[in-house]
Amino acid sequence: MIHQIQTTSNFSTKNSVLTWLLGGLNFQVEHHLFPKISHVHYPALNRIVRETCEKHNIKYNEFGTFWQALHSHVRVIKQMSV
User: Fold this and answer.
1) Measured by CB atoms within 10 angstroms of the end CB, which terminus of the chain is less buried, N or C?
2) Is the pTM of this model over 0.85?
3) What is the DSSP string of 3-70?
4) Which of 11, 24, 4, 6 is nearest to 72 (CA)?
5) In angstroms, rounded to a whole number, what is the distance separating the alpha carbons of residues 69 and 71?
6) What values do phi and psi take at 14, rounded to 5?
């Protein structure tokens, strides 16, 4: 679970329209930790997982917007291509 949390990122979790359009896939951390739980529960799980990570000093990755996440993704791909 720690590996999933450290290697996965959420994005735009406060954007309810995007959450609806993506079926909750912007909550990637919760999606990977709880694959059989309905996406309608991801916002509540997000708070619980984030608080648990803070309590145990585990880095929780989240981008505020889709564009921030996309920019990070492109940057990582460029780094890997060197």
Assistant:
1) C
2) yes
3) HHHHH-EEE-TT-HHHHHHHTTTT-HHHHHH-TTS-GGGHHHHHHHHHHHHHHTT---EEESSHHHHH
4) 11
5) 5
6) -95, 0
> How far, in Å, CA of 18 to CA of 14, rounded?
9
pLDDT in tens, the chain (82 residues): 999 999 999 999 999 999 999 999 999 999 999 999 999 999 999 999 999 999 999 999 999 999 999 999 999 999 999 8
- In contact, 52 and 2? CB cutoff 8 Å: no
Residues near 24 by beta carbon (within 8 Å), at least 6 away in sequence? 30, 31, 39, 40, 42
Task: For residues 62 and 8, give the distance between their C-alpha atoms in angstroms, rounded to a whole number.
Answer: 9
Q: Tell me how long the chain is.
A: 82
Asked if 65 and 37 count as a contact pair (C-beta separation under 8 A), the reply is no
